[in-house]
Amino acid sequence: MELHCAGEDAIMLYLGDEASPEVSARVQAAAAAVERALGDDLVDLVPSYASVLIIYDALHTDHLSVAHRTREALQALAAHATSEGREVVLPVYYDPEVGEDLAALAERASLSIEEVIRLHSATEYRVYAIGFAPGFAYLGQVDERIAAPRLATPRQKVPRGAVAIADRQTAVYPAVSPGGWNLIGRCPVRMFDPDAEPTMPVSVGDRVRFEAVSRERFLELGGELA
Amino acid sequence: MSLTVLQPGILSLLQDSGRRGRHRIGLTNGGPLDGEAFYYCNRLLGNAEGTTVIEVSFGGLQLQARVDTFICVTGARMPLRINGATRSLWEVHPVAAGDTVSLDFAAQGCRAYLGVADGFTIEPSFGSTATVMRENIGGLRGDKLHAGDELPCATVTNRRRYYLPADRQPHYQNTVTVRVIPGYQQHHFSRLQQRRFFSHAYTVSDRCDRMGYRLEGPAIACDIDGILSEGICFGAIQVPADGQPIVLLNDRQTIGGYPKIGSALSLDAAHLAQLAPGGTVHFAPISPHGAHNALHLARSFARRQPLLERRA
Fold this sequence. Notes:
The structure holds 2 protein chains of 2 kinds.
Chain A: E1 2-7, E2 10-14, H1 21-38, E3 42-47, E4 51-56, H2 63-76, E5 87-94, H3 102-108, H4 113-122, E6 125-130, E7 137-140, E8 155-158, E9 162-166, E10 169-172, E11 177-179, E12 182-186, E13 207-212, H5 215-220
Parallel strand pairs in A: 5-13
Antiparallel strand pairs in A: 1-2, 2-4, 3-4, 5-12, 6-7, 6-13, 7-10, 8-11, 9-10, 9-12
Helix pairs in contact in A: 1-2
Chain B: E1 2-8, E2 11-15, H1 35-45, E3 53-57, E4 61-65, E5 69-75, E6 80-82, E7 85-87, E8 92-95, E9 100-103, E10 111-116, E11 150-152, E12 162-163, E13 175-182, H2 191-199, E14 202-208, E15 212-216, E16 230-231, E17 236-238, E18 246-248, E19 255-256, E20 260-264, H3 266-272, E21 280-285, H4 288-304, E22 308-309
């Protein structure tokens, strides 16, 4: 565990130096402990792969006090405290019709499309971080056999719900946006809905599985093909 | 009851003090780029701190009142006219239904704040009315102001006409010194590179917006290309592979993987955001303790600043 002053109202807490389910579980447990320890002095918290950025109210406390309370809270945690997170299942319609890069990714991996789908939906992923855009959740780790680099030329417009792979990460696009990830399918569940409560079906630390569904089921669940 | 937008200008956005506590779903802060001018706009009007105002970048905004109220403009020197007659900034003025209010292009600085008595009545999204166009959230429809937009506000017939005397108003110059808390990723920058950063002038590039100000100057070399993506605080100074620093501001992404050489003091970031492309930036180191003191001092100074009252 390392603590550093990151700015006038921010402290960075490191819990490891790699993206792994173990580190992610520690991040989740630490984030919850910091939240309890700082109470109203906490303004915001950004858990990520191996770190937690703590933003505090600099007019009510200071970095020394925040660092001290954070250290105490983490020491009080059991040495191997981790958080299991919730399990969330997201349905996916995997097909070249909505996964423009599915065939190319399979060919590159010397696998059949069916095998790519099987490998993508067999893994239990962790939500490592949320950022880039509202509701954009970075999930890892993708099976090495279907890991694929970002596209050389990003698309101007990736549709909402697109399920995609970049290196060993996968994600569901929460809204129409530009993007360079490899598209392999489409998820009918909205990853970010400002009018819904909760706004997102997942939070950092949760475990996510993808479940292959048919075109009919995808449409029934409210999926859009356009 | 409202003000109607006749001309939106280049970029006019409804802003309150910004969104807090929503980074975990990927939402950034938004809020005023120049917190000082924003603070005075509401204080002069007798509004609660953090009341929703319009942030006008560069100028060109024209409004028509459909209500009797009071307005105040602070920040960049954009000539203010009410029904064609020039009026002072940093001062509360009455407007009557039918009056037109216009802000010309800025002669000094580039962000001004136009507020009304009791503020604009906008439905908050995620606890704030701050407009973040990149996220399509806040303000009206998550977008900047357009001609024809109605900005709801109350009828106010009685308000003290405070002003901030000219010698107490900030001056927006073309050169800004930004105090920086040296970063925890310093060890990725050699001492020579750190010295280069703190001893040379940088120029504001054309790529400067509410997400961040990209600067141009002597390239800063870093011994790594990137780090595991992590949370980015306000003011963080990223150094991407080309060595040109970017000071991240209100609409920054909440996580990122570029190494950071330090973090700008918010008080100075406010002045940085008043610079247009071509402006000059110097960096000076400050300790976390020094930064903490500076924040308290600025806060206390602003709150105690005496306002004068214009008698009709």
